[in-house]
Amino acid sequence: MQTMFTLDQKDLPRRWYNVLPDLPTPLDAPLHPGTREPIEPEALLSLFARTCVEQEVATDRWIDIPDPVLDVYRHWRPTPLLRATRLERALNTPAHIYLKYEGASPTGSHKTNTAVPQAYYNKLEGTKNLTTETGAGQWGSALAFACQTFGLGCTVFMVRSSYDQKPYRKAMMSLFGARVHASPSAETQAGRDALARNRETPGSLGLAISEAVEAARSGTGTKYSLGSVLNHVLLHQTIIGLEAERQMEMAGESPDVVVACVGGGSNFGGLVLPLYRAARERGRTTRFVAVEPEACPSLTRGEYRYDFGDTAKTTPLLRMHTLGHDFVPPPIHAGGLRYHGMAPIVSRLVEDGVVEPVAYGQLDVFASAVLFARTEGIIPAPETAHAVHAAVQIARECAATGDRKTILIGFSGHGHFDMSAYSAYLAGELARAEPADRVYVRAAAAAATRLYC
Amino acid sequence: MQTMFTLDQKDLPRRWYNVLPDLPTPLDAPLHPGTREPIEPEALLSLFARTCVEQEVATDRWIDIPDPVLDVYRHWRPTPLLRATRLERALNTPAHIYLKYEGASPTGSHKTNTAVPQAYYNKLEGTKNLTTETGAGQWGSALAFACQTFGLGCTVFMVRSSYDQKPYRKAMMSLFGARVHASPSAETQAGRDALARNRETPGSLGLAISEAVEAARSGTGTKYSLGSVLNHVLLHQTIIGLEAERQMEMAGESPDVVVACVGGGSNFGGLVLPLYRAARERGRTTRFVAVEPEACPSLTRGEYRYDFGDTAKTTPLLRMHTLGHDFVPPPIHAGGLRYHGMAPIVSRLVEDGVVEPVAYGQLDVFASAVLFARTEGIIPAPETAHAVHAAVQIARECAATGDRKTILIGFSGHGHFDMSAYSAYLAGELARAEPADRVYVRAAAAAATRLYC
C-alpha cells in the first residue's frame, strides 16, 4: 500500500494563500503601544522589511512567491505526505491517519518556510543583520540558515530553559553562523531588568522578543524578524497546506479532522488556512483542532483582548487570546509552545467557531509521542507531539465507535534535538509540568492586575 | 531549476541486486576461525538467520525483497536525489554535484535498509532477540528500530568513544526499546578481558563485535546481526543505487564519479554496485571513489589478506583489506568508519582496479562539511562528510580545469546526533586525530606481530 505521497517539484506551489479577504470577521487593527490608537503599517518599518509589512495587511487572495525563495524551497520542498499505517494498526482503529511532514526541511521544522522569504525581503531592502528570539531553537536555527543563505548577519535570543535543555540547537545556529545569547541576557536593558528581578528565571518567548526588538532598534542596518503570530508569517507557511491539499487528493481522501499544535499559530495556520478555504469552496465539513499545552493554554483559558506581543511592552498591541504578556510558563519541553499570546488570525477563527482549541499535559503527550516513534519510526518534536496526541485520541474514539475518519496531522518537525526530553520521559523523570491553576494564580499575583478564569 | 528528484512509490525497486555473479574475480571463501579451512555456510546458522546465510553465497543476480520489508521501506523510500546547486555556486565549479540522501530514513542513515530485512528474516525463523555492535550509533539505532517493528528484543554494544560522544544516539536506541551497553562492557568475557588490559580504552568496532557475538551465543533464542561488511548486508543496501540509477536518469545525467565513505563498506557498496553494473552494461566509464579516514585507512594502507572480523577472533576469517583485528583506531568523530577491516566485495573491487580508495584527515573533512551545511542546509554525519570532502576536491579540480564532471555523493546520513563534533570543530577544539603512522606503530607494538607500511 502506498504510504508516501510526493509531489513532483514542478508542482511546487508558486503562490501563498492570504486568508485575510476570506475571514468570516475582519481582524481588529493593531494598536500603537504608546497611544493605544490603531497603528499605521508605516510605523512597523523600523522593525520589519517593507514587503513583510505590506503582506501584513494585503487584500489579494494569492501572493506570488519570489523566484529566489522558490529556489531555496526547492532544496527540500515539496515535503512528503505520509500515511501512518503502522500507528493505525497499533491503535486498531478504522481511522486513516496522515501526516504532512515538515521535518524534511534543513533545520527540521516548518520554520524555514517563513525564515527564507523574510531574509530574502530584508536582503533586497538593504538590511545587514536580523535579530530574533527563539524558544525551542527551531525558529532560531531556521533564521540562522536563511541569513546564511542570503548573506545576512543573525543574532538570536534563545529562551534560557531551551538554551539549557537543547545545546545542539545552539550548535546548529552557530554552524549556520548566528550569534546566540541565552535570554534573559546582559545584552539588552530588557534582559538586564529581568535578571535583576530574578536571576533564576527560565525566561519566556515574550521576554526574548523584547530583547530581540531592543537589539534591532539599537543596531545599524539591523531589523527584527518574528517566527510566528503575525499575518505575513502565517501567509508564508500556507505552502504547507497548499501542498497537503494536493497530496490528500493524490491519496484519494479529504480530511475530516485536521490537527496541529499551536504556540504562536504559524504551523497551525500554514496547514489549516488553505484547507479551510478548500473545505468552504467544496462545501465540505472539516474540523480544525488547535492543540496547546495545559501549561500554556492561551486559547483554552486565556482572554480574547488586546495585549502586547512581548514582556517589555514594546510591540504593538494585538487582539488575540492571551495569558497576559507577563505570563511565564513552566519550562515544559515543548519550548516552541511557551508563548503567552496567539496569532490574531487563529484567535479570530476560534472566536468564529471555525477552529476548536484543546489542551493536553506533557506526560500524556509524550506517551503518544513514544507510541508514534515506536510504530512509525519518526520521532516527533515535543511541540508536534501535541498534535500527535490529539490525533491518537481521535483515532481511539474511532476505534470505539467504528467511525472511519480521515485525520491529517500537521507534523511540524522532528525531535532529533529533543532526545534529552525523551530520555527524561523514559526514565520517569519528566514532570507533569505545574498544574495550570497554580501557574495562573502566581502569574496573576505577580501582575496584580487581573485574574485568569 | 529542479533540484530534487523523487521517484513515485510505485517505482520502489522490488528486487535487490546481487553483484556476486558479476564480480571480475570471485571472492575467496571465508575460513573457519578454528580450523582455518573454508567454512560451510551451515556453520554460520548459529549466528545468523538462514536466509541471510543463503544470501551470503547467492548466485542469482536479482533477489526479491519480501513484501513485509517493502511495507516498512515505504515509510521513507524512495529517498530523494538532490542537486547541490548552492554548493556548486560556492565552489564556482562547472561540475554538477548530486547526492543520494539516505538521511531521510527513520534513524537518519542508510542502515535501516538492511536492519529491516535482517529483523524480518529472524522473526520469520523464530528468533526472539538480536544482539549487535554499533560505532557511531547509526547501526544500533537502525537495528533497534527494526526489532521494535517486528517485535524482537535488541541488545546493542556501543563503542565506548561513541557512547560518550553521542548520548542522544543512545537515547534513540532506548526509545526504540533496545538495551545499550558501552563496549567494552562487563557483560561479556571479551569485554571484561579488554577492560582488564586497559580500563581507559575508547573501544573499537572489532571488540564490540566480539561482545555481541558472545552475547548471541550465550542467549536463548538469540542471534547476531551485523550492519556492514558481509555480502548479504551489501545486497540489502543496493536499493540505494537502484533508486539512484533511475533518479539520475530523471535528472538527465549519468555520473562520471561516484563517491561514498567506507567503514565496513555497506553504504559504499549499496550505492556503487548497481551503478557499476549499469556502467558496464552501457559501456560507460565511471570512477568509483571509496573515502576513508586517515586515522583508519584499511583500503589505502592495510593489507589484503585473511583476517578476523573481530578482536577476540571468534568470527570466520575473511579475505579483505585490514589493519589487523587488534587495531584500535583513535576516537575520531566518524565512529562508523572506525573498523579495521573492509567488506570482501569492496576489497576485491579495489584489487581489481574498479574502486579507487582515498583517505582524508578529519579536520579537512569537517571544513568541507561546514561548507556543505552552510550552502545546502543539510548537516552531514561525520562519516558522510568524508564523501562530501572528496566531492568538494573533485569539484575544485573541475573549477581549475573547466571540466564539467557529474559527481554523485552517497549521502549516507545526517549529523543531527553529531552536533558536539561540529561544536568542537567550530571552537577549534577538534584534534587532527593522531598521525596515522604513530597509530600504526603503537598498534604494531601492542600486537607485536607485524608492522604496517
Tell me about this structure.
The structure is a homodimer of 453-residue chains. With 453 residues, chain A is an alpha/beta fold. The first copy, chain A, has 2 domains: 3-9 and 76-108 and 233-452, Rossmann fold; 31-63 and 111-231, Rossmann fold (3-Layer(aba) Sandwich), CATH 3.40.50.1100. In chain A, 42% of the residues lie in helices and 16% in strands. Chain A has 17 helices and 15 strands. In chain A, the strands form 4 sheets. The first copy, chain A, has a 7-stranded mixed sheet with strand order 1-4-5-15-10-11-14, sandwiched between helices. Chain A has a 4-stranded parallel sheet with strand order 8-7-6-9, with helices on both faces. The radius of gyration of chain A is 20 Å and the shape is globular. The relative contact order of chain A is 0.15.
Q: How would you state the average pLDDT of chain A, rounded?
A: 93
Strand order of the largest sheet of chain A: 1-4-5-15-10-11-14
State the end-to-end distance of chain A. 49 Å
Summed up, the domain count of chain A is 2
**What oligomeric state do these chains adopt?**
homodimer
**Alpha-beta classification of chain A:** alpha/beta
Spans of chain A of 5+ residues with little confidence (pLDDT < 50)? 435-453
Number of strands of chain A: 15
Main sheet overview of chain A: 7 strands, mixed
Instruction: Give me the CATH architecture of the largest domain in chain A, please.
Output: 3-Layer(aba) Sandwich
Number of helices of chain A: 17
**Which chains have the largest interface?**
A-B, 47 and 47 residues
| CATH class descriptor of the largest domain in chain A | Alpha Beta
Query: What name does CATH use for the topology of the largest domain in chain A?
Result: Rossmann fold
